[in-house]
Amino acid sequence: MDMSTETVERTDLRQPLVDPKNSEQKPQKEVRSLESVLSESSLPYRRRVYLGACIEMKLLFRLALPAILVYLVNSGMSISTRIFAGHIGGKEFAAVSIGTSYFNFVYGLMLGMGSAVETLCGQAYGAQRYEMLGIYLQRATIVLALVGLPMTVFYTFSYPILLLLGEPKTVSYMASLYIAGLIPQIFAYAVNFTSQKFLQAQSVVAPSAYISGAALLLQVLLTWTTVYVVGMGLMGIAYVLTISWWFIVLAQSLYITTSPTFRHTWTGLSWRSFQGLWSFFKFSAGSAVMICLEMWYSHILVLLAGLLKDHALSLDSLSICMSISGFSFMVSIGFNAAISVRTSNELGAENPKSAMFASWTATFVSFVISLAEALALMMSRDYVSYIFTSDADVAKAVSELCPFLAVTIILNGIQPVLSGVAVGCGWQTFVAYVNVGCYYIVGIPVGCILGFTFDFQAKGIWTGMIGGTLLQTLILLYVTYRTDWDKEVKKARKRLDIWEDKKEPVLT
């Protein structure tokens, strides 16, 4: 059979609503080619795998590389605040570390709720039901903004809460001031994560990368000015970070509302976005729990470090390790975003073989990259901490923790990609249960026992954390291996068909 002929025939069955010459539509043709290659029984198995890998790698990296850049830049914005604070003083560095970990609770909440947009928009776009995407975007933004209102109260009273958690008084006070300057970011997150997922579902990721890159440059320049020229200290760092996030939001929103690329997926504000808010909240809550439990897991490590004997040294060394881990994690999150788009698009387009093949390809590629990162870290373990601080004691502590960090980086090369598959399929609630069991019933209790009872300190806490992550990764590997992809296609189709009848999302 002529493969190119079959591709053309499949393409003709569903003409996209947008201009086929538009570069954003090129992946649609290649997706169908991938399914036809994987289904071609006349080709040897190894040949099908080779041809499929060539097609999928091109699609994967087209999505993953800009997404990685976006997340690296976003992570770089957070890391740069720690670098500036570290060069002001040790207490300032500890305050920013605790403040960032504390504030990242809402970051995880908003990012998690935004992943519901990724599932629904991705499957709708794969099925070429473009009119649904704009409604989902507006509905999600409304829900996230409403959730942000009580969060402002939570962060307003951060000082007594940090004291209640047992953090040092001086550091808690400084951290609470830093957090106060970040509160407007809550609503920037509400808009940013929904619009970001809206773009990713359509394989439009490069503009977000350019915008984020410009925001990072703006932040570094303004932070240097406020710290070294104006002398605003921690508050200057916080204000600039908030301004940078709102710059991203405004630029991204302007791009969506003015670009002709989205003339079929964004048709303007609609009252229909206020319908089905409760249904959307329930589904996004499952997504939020899944993502939050993952993100909070590592930040709890930093908060626990504040309760150890030598809390200043433990906080500084663990914060540096978490910054490095977070920076590496952004690479895996880029693949997470790419595979959730690939999986949801394929399921919406009724391509079960392509969905399965894309899932395992992304997992393998991310694992290889994380392995290389871990090896590079071990080679530079004695020097890497000097990026953040000039303290020799902290550098020694970081060097001792690097083997634990290397294992974490390798696991983080696999687990986020599998979570991306879960988002693409809509398994968020199931993964949330897995996260509760692995992280909070196994990982944290074991870490506390090793760290405090057996006095292994930071190494003991981290060992327990690694155990929880390993258990979760093994479970997700097994579930993905056992997935019936034809059944997942039927679930996606049913969800979209019922929405077409009732004009509201069916999220079961």
If you had to describe this structure to a student in words, what would you say it looks like?
The protein is mostly helical. The protein has one domain. Helices cover 81% and strands 0% of the residues. The chain has 18 helices and no strands. The radius of gyration is 23 Å and the shape is globular. The model is unreliable at 1-32 and 501-508 (pLDDT under 50). It holds the Pfam family MatE.
| CA-based shape | globular
Q: Which structural class fits the helix and strand makeup?
A: mainly alpha
Q: What is the rounded distance between the termini?
A: 40 Å
- Number of continuous helical runs: 18
Based on CA atoms alone, the radius of gyration comes out at 23 Å
How much helicity do the residues have? over 70%
**Main β-sheet description:** none
Low-confidence stretches: 1-32, 501-508
Keywords: Membrane, Transmembrane, Transmembrane helix, Transport
Membrane topology: Multi-pass membrane protein
Subcellular location: Membrane
Family: Belongs to the multi antimicrobial extrusion (MATE) (TC 2.A.66.1) family.
